[in-house]
Amino acid sequence: MNSELWPDLTLAPWEDTRDTVHMWTQIVGKVRLALEPRLNHWWGITLYVSVRGLTTGLIHAGEVGIEIEFDFIEHVLRLRTTDGRLRRVALEPRSVASFYEATMTALEELGVRVRILARPVEIPEAIPFAEDVRHSSYDSEAMHRYWLALLRIDRVMRAFRARFVGKASPVHFFWGGFDLATTRFSGRPAPPHPGGVPNCADWVMQEAYSHEVSSCGFWPAGSEEGSFYSYAYPEPEGFRSWPVVPDSGRYDADLGEFVLPYRTVRTASDPDAVLLAFLQSTYEAAAERAGWDRAALERH
User: Fold this and answer.
1) Contact, 86 vs 80, CB < 8 A?
2) Do residue 81 and residue 207 come from a single domain?
3) Domains of the chain: total
4) In this structure, are 50 and 99 located in the same domain?
5) What does the DSSP 8-state code read for residue 17?
6) Whether residue 75 is found in the same domain as residue 106
7) Burial of 115 (0-12, 13-18, 19+ CB in 10 A)
8) Shared-domain flag, residues 126 and 155
9) What's CA 211's distance to the chain center, in Å?
10) Helix axes 140-161, 271-290, angle to 10 degrees
11) Same domain, 89 and 197
């Protein structure tokens, strides 16, 4: 039953697809970035897990509203407006350049005029979207399985988020890193982030980490089927040596965060409980070592 609910995500067969769709989500995410008011910590630019894939939610674009959704059931990018118009862009083996042209054309046809920084961020080699013919893979079955996994992860992460009554982000999908995440805040300011993320201005990271955080999420990389992660910024003394559960969770010094293989969760007798235990114990590492006011911030 677990193998059906928590699908196998072995990366090797679909890694090229992951990299292509990563660039596609950056294009759509940058459209939301260009049209939405700026929210603290970049909460206003993300995507969200939806009943069919990943969505921007409602974006206000002048007199019309638009929603853009990656549908991983029918494998189409669906652009819908509040006045009832619709455009589709096929999700199929096609280059980033082709997807970019088709998406921008669809927006123009819907009367949504938008200019974006038309190159990717947070990756070492930022090929402009209009020139990227290197990434062109699309495995529809793999993307469907990935979305099914995101559904399960989103459910558990929402339950974890509900335990916290302090400031906390939604469970949302950051297209820069291609990860699903949620973040808790102590309420205290943090020292300026050092930046250094490839093809991303340092001030972007400084806005994201302006206040002390404990953040967790899922990233389809780092292990054979992807990895759950949890980190603190700034990292308090003793954080990395804190005992976490399950035993297969560990601190990765290169990444600066705790990691847990997706496979460990998928193959557990109770995947939800294992993931919740990892999220809770790594949060406690941050909150205890940094002296958060847990009595005021947590729901008991």
Assistant:
1) yes
2) no
3) 2
4) yes
5) H
6) yes
7) exposed
8) no
9) 20
10) 50
11) no
Mean pLDDT of 201-216: 97
Nearest Cα neighbor of 238 from 285, 282, 291, 279 is 285
Helices (H), the chain: 2-5, 15-35, 96-109, 140-161, 202-208, 262-266, 271-290, 294-297
Q: Do both 241 and 290 map to the same domain?
A: yes
Look at residue 4 and tell me if it is in a domain: no
Domain that holds residue 178: 140-297
Residue type, 135: H
Q: Kindly indicate the confidence band of residue 2, based on its pLDDT and cuts at 50, 70 and 90.
A: low
3-state secondary structure of 53: strand
Provide CB contacts within 8 A for 151, sequence distance 6+.
49
Tell whether pTM > 0.85: yes
Q: What is the pLDDT of residue 5?
A: 86
Amino acid at 113: R
Domain boundary among 101, 131, 161: 131
Structure tokens at 82: 């509040």
Q: Which residues contact 30 (CB under 8 A, 6 or more apart)?
A: 116, 117, 118
Are 96 and 166 in a shared domain?
A: no
Phi, psi of 110, deg, nearest 5: -90, 0
Cα–Cα distances in Å, from 287 out to 94, 181, 200? Answer: 45, 18, 29
Token pair listed for 220: 């389809």
